[in-house]
Amino acid sequence: MNSVFYNYFSGREEFLTYLKKDVFSGSGMISTPVHKEPYFSETTRKAKLEWKEDQILIRLQGKVDSKSIRVPFSSQDSKSKLEFLPDYFGYKNLAEGFSIRIQPLDRERIHLQIDSKIGLEFSGTLKRLSGWRKWF
Question: Is the confidence at residue 33, as pLDDT, over 80?
Fold first, then answer.
């Protein structure tokens, strides 16, 4: 693989240009402890991230559970916070108790991490989908 490293955003506009209204998809790990053996409900999960109508939509799909998360860019309140730092984008939702970090690895891949009250809900690499794959 001969990818160009790309791990710096100068601000919101460059981050949105990087996303290009594309779809990113991949898999990663999950670590949410339970009180019975095997102590983790599941260990792998698939994720899909896309930009739609001034928000980021993230869909997590596991063996047992699925979950959707919205990150709005238009309206902010005192219970949520957007951060555009040079090497990652962060979002904290204090009301629901979760945070998201998106870090570019190169022009085609990002690292997505979602933490919540129950543990690490996702950590993995997503790849930019091209052509017909982004519609399914």
Answer: no
| Domains detected in the chain | 12-129 (2.40.128)
Q: Count Cβ atoms below 10 Å from residue 106 Cβ, excluding itself.
A: 15
Residue 110 CA from chain centroid, whole number = 8
In this prediction, residue 135 carries a pLDDT of 55
The Cβ-side half-sphere exposure at 88, using a 13 Å CA radius, reads 12
Question: Residue 2 has what pLDDT?
Answer: 47
Q: Which helix (H) or strand (E) holds 18?
A: helix 12-19
- Residues with Cβ within 8 Å of 9's Cβ and at least 6 positions away in sequence, in order, are 15, 18, 84, 85, 86, 87, 88, 89, 104
Beta bridge partners of 116: 98, 119
Instruction: Answer whether 112's CB lies under 8 Å from 100's CB.
Output: yes
The amino acid that residue 89 corresponds to is F
Taking alpha carbons only, the member of 67, 75, 30 closest to residue 49 is 67
Structural element, H or E, at residue 14:
helix 12-19
- The whole model's pTM is what? 0.83
